[in-house]
Specification:
It is elongated, with a radius of gyration of 24 Å. The longest helix has 18 residues. The chain contains four helices and no strands. 0% of the residues are buried. It is mainly α.
């Protein structure tokens, strides 16, 4: 449904004048900024690097994945 609407909108935008296109862009920017104004800013990975809880510290990532999969499989098997 959304693809059909998007396709229709794109066709209709092609018929607009430059001023109308700019007005539409302004409207969309305002709408997006308003919708996302209350969301907290996204954190950078560099800010949270090294903050993993104790079980992850010093353990090889692949070993951790394998161990957790085994544990999950055992729990599902019960």
């Amino acid at each position: 449904m959304a693809r059909k609407i998007m396709s229709e909108l794109k066709e209709k935008v092609d018929t607009l004048s430059i001023d109308e296109e700019l007005e539409l862009i302004d409207h969309l920017i305002h709408k997006i900024r308003t919708a996302h104004a209350g969301l907290p800013p996204r954190r950078k990975w560099s800010e949270i690097c090294g903050t993993a809880p104790h079980p992850l510290a010093g353990e090889d990532a692949q070993a951790w994945v394998k161990r957790n999969r085994r544990e999950s499989d055992k729990q599902r098997g019960r």
